[in-house]
Write a structure and sequence with these properties.
about 170 residues; mainly beta; Jelly Rolls; 6-stranded antiparallel sheet; 1 helix
């Protein structure tokens, strides 16, 4: 039997994440996405459909490329600091105590950037998740498909006819 999950943002074990190191080892792309995170709970643990993660977003950094989920709803709670939230409505400042709800559709596209030169932004990210999941990148015309075992990215212009090669 799994035990109740209790975590504290201040004492959690964080890991460094650099998406460029993970997905672009040859540094072909200019922008880096750097943060620290600590996963509190995950559907990959075998229970539930909710990801809960604490994030530290360093000064001047962005969490992920601008994207929208097609199945997962996402909620950010800003614990500490001030960030710029990009949505389909444009950019706006969010800060301590703000809750941002992103639906699983084009209205939920989002990206969080820390504009500060000195302060880290700390936030809680709660996602409803089920596999497979599709994430769409509206500014780039690409999408990413996630299963429990793997994930891959594709460009929309590489689409083929449903009956190709049948």
């Amino acid at each position: 039997m799994k035990k109740t999950v209790i975590a504290n943002v201040d004492t959690a074990q964080y890991k460094d994440v650099d998406l460029r190191k993970l997905f672009d080892p040859d540094h072909e792309h200019e922008k880096s996405f750097v943060f620290q995170n600590s996963t509190v709970s995950s559907p990959l643990d075998g229970e539930g459909k909710t990801f809960v993660t604490f994030y530290h977003l360093p000064p001047g950094k962005t969490n992920y490329p601008y994207h929208q989920h097609c199945g997962a709803e996402e909620v950010y709670y800003i614990i500490k600091g001030t960030a710029i939230l990009k949505t389909p409505e444009g950019e706006r400042t969010v800060g301590e105590g703000d809750v941002i709800v992103m639906p699983a559709n084009e209205n939920g596209a989002h990206q969080l950037t820390n504009p500060s030169a000195t302060e880290t932004v700390t936030y809680l990210d709660v996602d409803t998740y089920s596999y497979p999941e599709i994430v769409f990148f509206p500014d780039k015309g690409k999408f990413r498909i996630f299963t429990k075992q793997e994930s891959n990215s594709f460009m929309l212009d590489s689409a083929v006819n449903y009956l190709k090669d049948e």
